[in-house]
Specification:
2 strands, about 650 residues, Tumor necrosis factor alpha-induced protein 2, single chain, mainly alpha
């Protein structure tokens, strides 16, 4: 703007010298509080407002510019001056007619002296009219609706007359001074811009909610702009000629000042909180809660105000936000893990939830990640997608740290009273993490290894710790098979199964799914240890009947193991053929039949090697060395070609 203020451009109403306006001003001075803007002035319109559907004086019929020219003789300049001094805006149309009559007189050859005299009177009248019109429009909702409608109509008429005069061109050789364009519309727009600056630039009061200065400023500007524009749409627009477009005038001025204020703030090095709030207003609250609000959307979408900040600056702020938020998430997760590790070391017993040991760590981490993503999504959904990918990488890094901290706890804190309880609580955490990744963050069921790897290792190490004592108790029982030369295998296996059954309640504080997974580990251990005893080469049977009897014992034992483990939750069906097929190899006598069985076995258990086969064939003392060599050769094709995803024989060492 130029150095002239809105007070210069739009003179106050007192300068109009209208007696009836003096009375209005005197009444206003009795008010105890100043006006708080457009939204607080609505009482002017609500008092005595007619019900919807009833005609009112503030609703002119037809286009305001379609009124007929004054009929009969025009009033004199002196008469118009008296009318204007009384605040009568109806004098605008006769004044316009007087101006046009003056132009006609100039074209008719009237003397230059007379033209100058008459024009000076017309221009003096326009000064009075301008003061009246712009004075009303400076505080539009302080005046009666009908007077406001008249002022808006006069403003629109003057703008149309400016355009008409510009299209007609200046008359040549006339003594008249070119008075058009008068640019009242520009003066009014400057006053609107000044009002926007004053309204939005007011210092917001401190609040009790702990908002920063920038947050209070953003909230004040957003709330003020929305309320003021709603008042413009609801109160000024119905009274204004359509070609004046009052909504666009106010919206553009408020938008420009809002944008200028935000651009000024963005130049500084902002704290994390203010960076987030700035983006939240630019990308979400301003376009959605103001521009597309129910009362404003229809008008403001047409105006196309655009963004509060340029795209490049928004991208820079988004990059800063992402960096800040990721750093904050990392710090919060590290702090949560440190606090959890300290609880383990202090031997604090874990909580119980639905009869299972429970840790808050997984919930804390999931909440930290989710809040970071929700914060980004509150700005834009696209930013939420961007941060999700980064946060999942940070989650993977956290899970590796979590696994290392857990392994350290397993190694150093074995003597603590709540050691096993905390182990189970941490195994149970794996379910919370997996559920969040599959459901909340919508990762595919086949979770990536960098996310599931640390959790699988943590669970596996936890199972090993929990089962260490049980497996230690089973070791001497399994040794009985070879010590008794398989004389009473059913009784030996019965003792093993009884021991396992007695210890299973120790694991009831695990989630059901982990009790089943732990039972699969037990199932694997029973089958593996049984095979180890068969592979000790301590038993050599040369009689066919002895081989048949051993095969029957193995089949019976395999059935007991499978039934017991399945009843207690194991779903390791892949182990079902491990012992029965070995029994069949021991029973068969035809080398060709044995080869077929061995080949089939090797497809089921790719880690079954020649060494393992030789240990089993050593039981069959009636095979010649050539027959053994021939049977072993069947593994030449497959050995080393496949890797088992579920190891069995790779866990068994043979001499």
């Amino acid at each position: 703007m130029s150095e002239a203020s809105s007070e210069d451009l739009v003179p106050p109403l007192e300068a109009a010298g209208a007696p009836d306006r003096d009375k209005e001003e005197a009444l206003k001075k009795k008010k105890k509080k100043k006006s708080k803007g457009l939204a607080s002035m609505l009482s002017v319109f609500t008092k005595g407002r007619k019900k919807k559907g009833q005609p009112g004086s503030a609703e002119p019929e037809g286009h305001p510019g379609a009124q007929p020219e004054p009929s009969g003789p025009l009033p004199t300049a002196e008469e118009l001056k008296a009318e204007l001094e009384r605040g009568r805006l109806e004098a605008a149309r006769p004044l316009l007619a007087l101006e046009r009559e003056l132009a006609a007189a100039a074209a008719g050859g009237e003397s230059a002296e007379e033209l100058v005299r008459r024009q000076s009177k017309v221009e003096a009248l326009y000064v009075l009219l301008r003061e009246q019109v712009l004075g009303v429009l400076r505080r539009p909702l302080d005046v009666a609706p009908e007077r406001l409608r008249q002022a808006l109509q006069v403003l629109a008429e003057q703008e149309r007359e400016d355009r008409r005069a510009a299209a007609a061109g200046a008359p040549g050789g006339s003594a008249l001074v070119a008075a058009r364009p008068r640019r009242w519309l520009q003066l009014w727009r400057r006053a609107v811009a000044q009002a926007a600056q004053e309204r939005l630039g007011a210092r917001p009061a401190a609040d009790a909610e702990g908002r920063s200065e920038a947050e209070r400023a953003f909230l004040h500007m957003g709330r003020t702009m929305k309320e003021d524009l709603e008042a413009v749409v609801e109160r000024l627009k119905p009274l204004s000629p359509a070609d004046l477009d009052v909504v666009a005038a106010y919206a553009e001025s408020y938008h420009e000042h809002f944008a200028a204020q935000l651009a000024a703030v963005a130049q500084f090095e902002l704290c994390e909180r203010d960076t987030y709030m700035l983006l939240l207003w630019v990308q979400n609250l301003y376009p959605n809660d103001i521009i597309n609000s129910p009362k404003l959307a229809g008008d403001l979408q047409r105006v196309q105000l655009g963004s509060l900040l340029p795209p490049r600056q928004i991208r820079l702020l988004e990059a800063t936000f992402l960096s800040n938020e990721v750093a904050s998430v990392k710090e919060l997760m590290a702090r949560a893990l440190e606090l959890e590790s300290q609880r383990w070391a202090r031997d604090v017993a874990p909580q119980r939830l639905d009869s299972h040991y429970h840790s808050e760590l997984a919930i804390d981490i999931i909440q930290i990640i989710s809040q970071g993503q929700a914060k980004a999504e509150s700005i834009t959904l696209d930013l939420g997608v961007q941060i999700k990918n980064v946060l999942l990488l940070e989650l993977a890094a956290f899970l590796r740290s979590y696994q290392r901290a857990f392994d350290e706890f397993l190694e150093r804190c074995k003597q603590l009273r709540n050691y096993r309880a905390n182990v189970m609580a941490n195994i149970n955490n794996c379910l919370s993490f997996r559920t969040a990744m599959e459901q909340k963050w919508q990762i595919l069921q086949d979770l990536p290894g960098h996310l599931m790897g640390p959790l699988s290792d943590l669970k596996s190490h936890g199972f090993d710790t929990l089962l260490q004592s049980l497996f230690g108790d089973l070791k001497p029982l399994f040794k009985r098979f070879t010590q008794t030369r398989w004389a009473a295998p059913a009784q030996t296996l019965g003792d093993i199964i009884s021991t396992v059954g007695e210890r299973l309640p120790e694991f009831s504080e695990l989630h059901d799914c982990f009790q089943k997974e732990l039972m699969e580990v037990v199932h694997l251990h029973l089958v593996k240890e049984y095979i180890i005893r068969l592979s000790k080469r301590s038993l050599v049977l040369k009689v066919v009947e002895q081989q048949r009897q051993l095969a029957e014992h193995i089949l019976a034992n395999a059935e007991v193991i499978q039934r017991f483990c399945t009843q207690n939750g194991s779903s390791a069906t892949w182990l079902h053929h491990a012992l029965p097929t070995l029994a069949e190899i021991i029973r068969l006598q035809d080398p060709s039949a044995i080869k077929i069985e061995v080949a089939t076995y090797a497809t089921r258990y790719p880690d079954f090697s020649k060494g393992h086969l030789s240990a089993i064939l050593a039981i069959k003392g009636n095979l010649s060395s050539n027959e053994v060599k021939s049977i072993r050769s069947i593994l030449d094709v497959s050995e080393g070609m496949q890797q088992s995803s579920k190891p069995l024989f790779s866990l068994i060492k043979v001499g």
